[in-house]
Amino acid sequence: MIHVEQARQKARNLYERKFSEWAVVGCAGAPMDIPLHPPTQEEVLADAAAAADWIALWRAEEQKLSRGARITWESRQWASAGTQRVPARLVLHEPADAAAFAGAQKHWTAAAHRAEELVDLLRRCSAGATTPVEDVPDAVRRRLKKIAELTVAEYTRLRDALTWLLAHPSPGIYPRQMPIRGVDSKWLEKHSSIVEPLYAAATGSASLGLLRGPGLIRLRFLDASAAPGGLRDLSAPVEELNRLDVAPRAVIMVENLQTLLALPDMSGVVAIHSAGYAAKSPAAISWLHECPVIYWGDLDVDGFRILSIVRAALPQTTSVLMDRSTLKEHLDLAGPDRKDAPRTLPEHLTAGERDGFAALQEFGEVRLEQERIPWQFALAALAADRR
Q: Could you give the CA distance from residue 101 to residue 111 in angstroms, rounded to a whole number?
């Protein structure tokens, strides 16, 4: 027998999987038709009270169903139990009925309304798009889960931001200059995974046409005598760093900012903050291509992927403290890596680094953050690598 809560859970599971499609594309036929598997004669005879309670619960639930939902009842004739009317199937004819039974009526109302509104808005503007990146309904469908989770105020900002951006292609202003209450650079960055693909689906352009501030790169001159104008700690755009007349003996690139700040004086050495996956940005510094580069990142899947990015741009890069022996010696300081970390081997790794990458999996999908490695051990490895 399928009990009411079991059927409701089935409805919840299906709703979670299908509501985006229902809201954008619609639904051919009833979205849910659940057989309830009424009790057999043997089950009734074994526990008549349980069978009666089951029937009563479904009869009570029938009174709560929305207009487009129904329970089909059938007669069962049993030699030992007489004739009984039992619920046989639960049929939910419309997506709204499935949502109501699943307890998601409020969510469905918002999702359906927002999907309709955004598809209409984007379609009105997509007529002029010569090379659509993605079909408008599909673009909305793919992002509807996030869109439906927005508060009313946040959704209003999203709709108004898209409306303004579509009406003002390539505005050439900064996000904070957009005349929309509550929309600024932080808001746009937080919601870029929704705004940008929807805009691209309507216009065929991957760029919103807004101005962006210059990306700053943080670096430290570990040799005071080589610091330009005595400035040892700098954050500047690539264009300005390219104007520096420097020729370091070596560059150490580190993933963690505190590690950058803690590095001691080193003759002829410049240290650079790689800032995670932004590590490809420093490769645009011209003088970086003329000196040895040492990369030290977290001993985890992301650390090796970032190392691959750096070496693809700066082939002379060597790594330090990113090998099996370092991981094994400090395994007690390691922790679990994120569950969704990609396990595909990055391209630009040496044999030793590939072995270190394999060790992460062998030791139980772990990660060893660079700041956990004892400082004196790390400094000794850096000194040995520069010899």
A: 16
- Cα 21 to Cα 8: distance, rounded to the nearest angstrom: 20
State how far Cα 242 lies from the chain centre. 34
Query: For the residues of 214-282, what is the DSSP string, one character each?
Result: PPEEEEEESSGGGSGGG--EEEEEHHHHTT-----SEEEEES-HHHHHH----TTEEEEE--GGGGGGG
* Run means of pLDDT, 10 residues per run, the chain, 387 residues: 92 94 86 89 86 92 90 82 85 92 94 96 74 77 95 95 92 88 88 92 87 85 94 92 93 93 95 82 90 95 92 94 96 91 89 96 94 94 79
CA dist., res. 249 & res. 262, Å (int): 20
Whether 219 contacts 234, CB under 8 Å: yes
Which residue in the block uniquely carries the two structure tokens 């027998």? 1
Output phi, psi for 346, to 5 deg: -65, 160
